[in-house]
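User:
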Amino acid sequence: MSAATINPQEAAHFGALAADWWDPHGSSAMLHKLNPVRLSYIRAQIDAHWHGDARERFSLAGRSAIDVGCGAGLLAEPLARMGAKVTGVDAAPENIAAARAHAAGQGLTIDYFAGELAALPPATFDFVTSMEVVEHVADPAAFIVELAARLAPGGLMILSTPNRTMLSKLLLVEAAERVGAVPRGTHDWDQFLKPEELTKLLEDAGLEVVDRTGLLPSLAKGFKLGGSEALNYLVAARWPA
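Assistant: Predicted structure:
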């Protein structure tokens, strides 16, 4: 029996934000600023993993992808535009309803599901993503095991999450929520994972971490890759060769 990983309070919190998820100036404005940087990292890792050409538009053509904790589809839609057959799963039914409506308006075919990842029909995927999610689940270790179970042999997984540092507590929780950059109650600093903790969870699930990079605020671009991991970081993992 798979462990339940959804935290009902977290699902309710994010479900309440579903209506303006796609508004770049709304409650998810921070995600809209993060997304281009995350996509840059994702594309670089896809090309490195499958020896792709950076000039190729459809870098995921012929591959399957799943975005876990997909919200209203902010990442799932670009993955579909890269040519992948995409599945999105989220704990909040309100988010899935918003995701389906937006994808239909964009002419995109994406399979969306609300509920536990383990409740999805049996399937594995070439590409697994879960962005800013592991810090919100009830059981991170069980969640990582469920993610690994969905990764096909030869596939690639990419995660992002805040680091548990005093800097992240000051900037991502106290300052960001106080000034309204993110909705109040979005983050529980005690649930943040340090890079070595997430690496161990991935390794315990049988995966190998192949890359990790920091994600930092930038006055010029909003966010940038590289440098310090003190606030946020991204991790790429795969099955050992």
